[in-house]
Amino acid sequence: MNNIIVGFDFSTGSANAVDLTIDIANRWQVDVRLVYVKEKNEDEDPIRSEIERRNAGVAHLLNGIKLEYVIRSGKVYEELVAQAIEDQALMIVVGTNGMSGFETNWIGKNTYRTITESPVPVLSVREDFNFKKDLERIIIPLDSTTETRQKVPFAARMAKTFGSEIHLLGLYTSDSKDIKNLVNGYVDQVEKFLDKYEVEHVTKFVDARKNLTVTTLEYADSVNADLIVIMTEQEKALTSWLIGNYAQQMLHLSKHPILSIRPEQIGSQSR
Prior knowledge:
Elements: E1 4-8, H1 12-28, E2 32-38, H2 44-57, E3 67-73, H3 76-87, E4 91-95, H4 109-117, E5 122-125, E6 137-142, H5 152-162, E7 165-172, H6 177-196, E8 201-207, H7 212-222, E9 227-231, H8 244-253, E10 258-261
Parallel strand pairs: 1-2, 1-4, 2-3, 4-5, 6-7, 6-9, 7-8, 9-10
Antiparallel strand pairs: 5-10
Helix pairs in contact: 3-4, 7-8
């Protein structure tokens, strides 16, 4: 189907996520599948009625695309991922402080688990993000891992879609000349890729030895970024599990939307 999945639970954050998803879907000319995950014994009829009422309220935003919904039962992250697999979705969108369990001391169990389990990129957007602002600047942090470049094609697609400028952020995590040369080489490759696809871009190299997350977010704040694109495995030497400290901290601390891509999602970038 190649649609976009958006998680929904009647919260303001998830409602904003639906609007953003419709905007992206209109530009890509793909349909939207809204997914509500109910409690086991929760009555489905009032849920269905309210979703249909709300969907009617945003019908005027649809430009040649369909907004459909499905009500599933189970764990939120499992059902979002299952629906994405069934639909062969292009992306999952989640609004933080939306979906049950998001009100935790960081972005929330469901976002975290959705990202780690999802076979497609996951866009997470905080409730207080300015949804009316154009997607002008996209940050792509690049480190010394081979996986770091895999996020570039999908990020480039987003940039082409919105006419955004990409900011390549070369992260030096060591004084090692070999590490710096790797980062320089990867950045050079990405610059050539973006030139080929006529995506506007600027480049900056920074010392990120102290903290990858803080360094990235400080730069994102300095340029008023609208999106940060990360891999869920970053700088293997500095992380322990698949998602790693970098991605987890980014999800917790960033006020900017985060597009998370797993290394094995390399095939999904070209759809």
